[in-house]
């Protein structure tokens, strides 16, 4: 039996009053984040919205790095999104990390390469993975720590980029432990000197602080 033609008039189509604002915010978020795959990112956006989770949206548009010959996928802005989405859970399932990573349209090969740098057996410790993400962005320990401070800080953009000393020490110690050329004694010595440097600043470490101490080693 053929389906009868149905005619709709404007009065029959109900449009939620909040829809225009939702679509406006969605459009702004897409422009700011500039995802590679808009469809995949849109799925992640509205899924996060439906669950009341942090949205996969960059705080600002990231300009391409002029000296970067190859697109490495992960950027400080994207790593900051992941931190907002996953940090509160402490340890996360690999499948959840894969899902968030995919929704940001990041290459899965890069994720697997980062995971292989440590032996994550009973889930992924977020702060360790975050540190590995900073190392992928930085290329050197000093540059990695600079990225960590700039992503984690509550200071305004262009400020001192301070983070708690304990957070800095954890990330620095972890990344140093992955480098066979850095001795445990040198790490302890550096952190001890850094702690003395920031003892009068409520134990908050800024980029200038660790750069200053680094020059002495």
Automatic annotation (TrEMBL):
This is Ropporin-1-like protein. Its main location: other. The keyword Amino-acid biosynthesis does not apply. Keywords: Cell projection, Cilium, Flagellum. Belongs to the ropporin family. It is found in: Cell projection, Cilium, Flagellum. GO terms for cellular component: motile cilium. The keyword Transcription does not apply.
């Amino acid at each position: 039996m053929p389906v009868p033609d149905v005619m709709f008039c404007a009065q029959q189509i109900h449009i939620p009053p909040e829809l225009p604002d939702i679509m406006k915010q969605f459009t702004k978020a897409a422009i700011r984040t500039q995802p590679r795959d808009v469809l995949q990112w849109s799925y992640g956006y509205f899924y996060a919205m439906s669950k009341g989770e942090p949205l996969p949206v960059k705080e600002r548009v990231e300009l391409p790095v002029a000296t970067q010959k190859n697109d490495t996928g992960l950027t400080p802005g994207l790593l900051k999104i992941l931190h907002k989405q996953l940090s509160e859970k402490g340890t996360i399932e690999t499948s959840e990390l894969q899902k968030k990573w995919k929704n940001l349209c990041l290459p899965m090969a890069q994720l697997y390469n980062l995971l292989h740098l440590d032996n994550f057996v009973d889930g992924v410790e977020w702060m360790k993975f975050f540190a590995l993400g900073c190392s992928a962005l930085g290329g050197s320990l000093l540059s990695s720590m600079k990225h960590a401070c700039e992503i984690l800080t509550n200071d305004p953009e262009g400020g001192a980029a301070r983070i708690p000393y304990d957070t800095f020490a954890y990330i620095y110690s972890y990344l140093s432990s992955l480098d066979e050329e850095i001795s445990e004694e040198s790490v302890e010595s550096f952190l001890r000197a850094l702690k003395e440097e920031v003892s009068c600043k409520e134990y908050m470490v800024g980029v200038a602080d660790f750069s200053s101490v680094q020059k002495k080693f």
